[in-house]
Amino acid sequence: DYHRETLAMKCDGLSADQWCRRSVPPSSMSLIGLVRHMADVERNWFQRVLSGLGDDLAGPIFYQRVVNPDGDFDDVDPTTVEADIATWRREIAAADVVIAGIDLDDRRSSALGNEFDLRWVLIHMIEEYARHNGHADLLREAIDGTTGD
């Protein structure tokens, strides 16, 4: 939760165009791209793997596609920023329901047959958010000079 809210804090108060501003070429990274990426990551680990729903019941991830594996970063649009943020928030809420329903050592298998327990997934998510919060720091500072805690 701390790292989820840190990402939200680093993006607070920006216009839709600022959310979509890219970092340094050739990178397509933006703050909304990070949020979209994390919506996909939340869905993958909590809905598809830990809940065991897979694509059929959980639905596919939102932004990364076979035709464009970097769609979460590449296909950003200021007109969809609010919807993208809402999607991320919904995935966090859905993940929290999954987390509340299983024990830390409960193991689940991915579609590829790899086994993970909740403890491993939570540590991985902390790492993933922490890494991207570092990216968010640099992106935000480039937009308006704001630096975060």
Distance N terminus to C terminus? 15 Å
Q: Report helical residue fraction.
A: 55-70%
Whole-number average pLDDT? 91
How would you write the strand order of the largest sheet?
Answer: 1-2
Number of strands: 2
Please give a structural write-up.
By secondary structure, the chain is mostly helical. 61% of the residues lie in helices and 4% in strands. It has helices spanning 2-11, 16-20, 31-50, 54-58, 71-74, 81-100, 118-144; strands at residues 107-109, 115-117. A two-stranded antiparallel sheet has the order 1-2. Helix 1 packs parallel to helix 7 (118-144), helix 3 (31-50) packs parallel to helix 6 and helix 3 (31-50) packs antiparallel against helix 7. The chain is globular and about 45 Å long. It starts with a helix and ends in a 5-residue tail after the last helix. 28% of the residues are buried.
Tag the structure with descriptive keywords.
mainly alpha
Topology:
Blueprint: H1 2-11, H2 16-20, H3 31-50, H4 54-58, H5 71-74, H6 81-100, E1 107-109, E2 115-117, H7 118-144
Antiparallel strand pairs: 1-2
Helix pairs in contact: 1-7, 3-6, 3-7
Q: How would you summarize what this structure contains?
A:
The chain is mostly helical and 149 residues long. It has helices spanning 2-11, 16-20, 31-50, 54-58, 71-74, 81-100, 118-144, and strands at 107-109, 115-117.
